[in-house]
Design goal:
Elements: H1 21-24, H2 27-34, E1 41-42, H3 45-48, H4 55-63, H5 68-78, H6 81-85, H7 92-101, E2 107-115, E3 126-128, E4 134-139, H8 143-154
Length: about 160
């Protein structure tokens, strides 16, 4: 999980609105990974912004806590109910992990993307380019299928 390809970043600072936190933390390392030739599936904010943790999801999870893992996740998420109720909490890392299990949860599109690793307002930005390394970028998640897979996984 990292980056924001065609959407605004996570607002890592007042001057930098294009980067997402995970890439911003070490943009040079991220650029090296992107350019390494290794196969990369990026689950950026472009996808995670469409999968918020909702009050309805919390109600489903509360009703289906059959394992200690599900109970733990419910309790951990419950500590963020203010953000959840205001629509500001998302399945960032869980969606990325779920995509590694089931790629059909998202649309994967080959894109040429680089990481800006120079000081300035775009430092850490994942930028589409016409001559960069090709990676697979996730978009258009199936939120209902993800939520079902997530709850089932917690209760196995």
């Amino acid at each position: 999980m990292g980056g924001a390809v065609d959407v605004p970043g996570s607002g890592v600072s007042d001057e930098n609105t294009t980067a997402e936190w995970n890439i911003y933390c070490d943009p040079h390392a991220a650029r090296l990974v992107f350019e390494s030739g290794a196969p990369i599936t990026l689950v950026p904010l472009d996808a995670t912004n469409d999968v918020p943790v909702t009050v309805e999801f919390m109600q489903k999870l509360e009703a289906s806590q059959t394992t200690p893992e599900a109970q733990f996740v419910y309790k951990a998420l419950s500590g963020n109910m203010g953000s959840i109720e205001s629509g500001g909490y998302y399945f960032w890392d869980p969606l990325a992990a779920a995509v590694m299990v089931d790629e059909s949860l998202v649309t994967l599109t080959p894109r040429e993307v680089t990481v800006v690793d120079t000081p300035g307002a775009d430092n850490g930005r994942t930028k589409p380019v016409g001559n960069g390394p090709e990676i697979r970028v996730a978009t258009a998640p199936d939120g209902a299928a993800f939520e079902q897979l997530f709850i089932e996984g917690l209760n196995r």
